[in-house]
Amino acid sequence: MMLQKFSLISLACLLFTGCMSNEGTSPEEKKFRKVESAASECAEIVKNQTIELTAEGQDANTRWTTIEYVVPGQHTRTVEYRTSSVLDNGEPGKAWQTCMSDKKALVPELKI
Fold first, then answer.
1. Which residues, 6+ apart, have CB-to-CB distance to 33 below 8 Å?
2. What average pLDDT score do residues 75-83 get?
C-alpha cells in the first residue's frame, strides 16, 4: 500500500513537472522570463555591492522597487529594479541598467 502511494505521488510529480516545461512557451514569454531573471540578478548585485561599500565606510543607500514590462496587447508585468546612491553616480538606476545591458536584457519593453 505504501509503495503504491509513493508510486502515485512520483507519477503525479513527473506529470506536473512535464506540464511545467518550456516546450510550449511562446517566444514572448521566454523573453520576459529572461528579462525577469536578469532583473532579479542585477537588483541583487547592486544591493550586495552597495552593502559592501557601506561596510567599507562609504555613505550609501539603496532603493528596491519594480518597473513595468509592457507588451502592447498583453497585460503589464513588473520586474525588480534597484538604485544605489554610490553606484549610480548621480543617475538613479544606472548600475542596474548597466548590469541589464551586460546581460543583453535591457529591452524596450522595460519602462524605465
1. 25
2. 97
